Amino acid sequence: MKLMYWLLVCASCLACLAQRVIEDRDTEDVLSNTETELMAWNDDTGYVRSLVQQNNMVQQPYITCHVLNALARHPEAVDDPASQAANDNLTCEKELGHFLADVERNISIMKEKMEKLERKINAKPKSCLEVPRGVPRVRLSLEDGTEALCDTITDGGGWRVIQRRVNGLENFYRPWKDYKFGFGSLDGDFWTGLETLHELTKEDYYEMRVDIMRKDKKFGFAQYTYFRIENETKAYKLILGDFYGTIGDELGPHRNMKFSTRDQKNDNILKKTASCAIKFRGAWWFDRCHKSHLNGVWGSTAFGSGVTWKAFTGFNESAIFAEMKIRPVGFG
């Protein structure tokens, strides 16, 4: 009777344990469902898989005890059932103890590792540099809570788009406040914001690129080896490096110019009542007034009022696509 009691206890414990193993399959399902995302962390994934294999190995005592329980119910299966069951029962109890301890420990380790991997998956990138190459435009939620549009293909990728004209749905004839904080939609036309540009470029070295297309579908670019925007006290002055590209250096003449909007005149027109921003219905680092103006009136053919880059579009044509984008120097 004592033997049967222990066998029943053993069987009962194993039944509970079997239920625990079944319930824990959710953890393995999570591992399976996230396998694609976890490929970048081979060490962690391999470790978790090894734990799963260990759990499969320690299930052997369950099989052994299950067999012993069956023998106890059918003693005719062995020559000396009482002696055989008594000896094997001791082994069953000992292995069961190890089994329970191993499973509890491995479940705890697996849970910790899975939580760590989940944090990696859900972690938000700090910049467009962390986006894999291959997708032309990626809308990204950054670690600092802001959103960015990333170009992962052009000239090696890593670009953050800071200005975009693509459909003409956004009005760019706006006051200082709007240009300071930004406006528009990352899915269409937008301006990132001068304050954001200052914060991005005040410490790190950035390069800047302009991509532009005119209505005959001809495409060109201008790239500058260095790009920085000063703070608001300095009216977000434009600091530029050297030029190279296919559309002419039409931003170079605006080097060291302050930013102007319709309600804040910082251009170099001597007449105080005259304003480049008002005359050309936009906002830019105007001098007297511009050789380029990517914040002009969409589709306008009025002299100098469109989305213009003089050497490429002329002053009586408006580009049908324009982007300004920046990335840390040395990435491409």
From TrEMBL:
<protein>
    <recommendedName>
        <fullName>Fibrinogen C-terminal domain-containing protein</fullName>
    </recommendedName>
</protein>
<keyword id="KW-1015">Disulfide bond</keyword>
<feature type="signal peptide">
    <location>
        <begin position="1"/>
        <end position="18"/>
    </location>
</feature>
<dbReference type="Pfam" id="PF00147">
    <property type="entry name" value="Fibrinogen_C"/>
</dbReference>
<dbReference type="GO" id="GO:0005615">
    <property type="term" value="C:extracellular space"/>
</dbReference>
<dbReference type="InterPro" id="IPR036056">
    <property type="entry name" value="Fibrinogen-like_C"/>
</dbReference>
<keyword id="KW-0732">Signal</keyword>
<feature type="domain" description="Fibrinogen C-terminal">
    <location>
        <begin position="119"/>
        <end position="330"/>
    </location>
</feature>
<dbReference type="InterPro" id="IPR002181">
    <property type="entry name" value="Fibrinogen_a/b/g_C_dom"/>
</dbReference>
<dbReference type="InterPro" id="IPR020837">
    <property type="entry name" value="Fibrinogen_CS"/>
</dbReference>
<dbReference type="InterPro" id="IPR050373">
    <property type="entry name" value="Fibrinogen_C-term_domain"/>
</dbReference>
<dbReference type="InterPro" id="IPR014716">
    <property type="entry name" value="Fibrinogen_a/b/g_C_1"/>
</dbReference>
